[in-house]
Amino acid sequence: MELCEEWALAECEGEGWWREARETSGRGEDVRYAGVAPVERAASAPATALAVRAALNSAKTLNKKLQKVNLDISPKGIIVSDADSQENVLSVSIYRISYCSADAANARVFAVVEGKSGSGSSESHVVHVFVCARRKQARALALSLAHAFNDAYQEWQANQGSSLQSTGKGTPWVRFPDESDEETDSEHCQSPAPLVTFA
What we know:
By secondary structure, this protein is α+β, with helices and mostly antiparallel strands. About 40% of the residues lie in helices and about 30% in strands. It has helices spanning about 5-15, 15-25, 45-60, 135-165, 180-185, and strands at about 30-40, 65-75, 75-80, 90-95, 95-100, 110-115, 125-130, 195-199.
């Protein structure tokens, strides 16, 4: 199902539905952290699905009991804490997240792709894998993260607006290098992958 369809359905149910889902979906219900695995691409459903499978197989091979966690999703990012001790397990800034999904092959899996700075200017990506008690919960977490991105972007726009007024100029959200017409004609145009996917 497309994200825009989910939002349209949600808006029929009332404006605050996703905030309520965000507050309850990662807390109080059984969410387990299955671990992390490298992923080949920053925003690719097939690559993410392969990495999710690798993380789940690794946990199964090690016969590892999955850690029960709480997720706090906000426009600042994701904070994962141990459900029993409340100790911080993982913090991922919203600016480091490139993709998330409610996994197609494993309906109860919520996956988040994070960019990690490597040596020099290279950046690698990893996927954090969470196993939820129900499919609906995994989908709610993915939607909550999508809305957190929207809130973060709106906050950024508001800050840019005040910056524009005070300095008279601003920084564009995305910059593209100068391209010749020949380079552009020879490349195949591809639309970017959506931030969130559902099976």
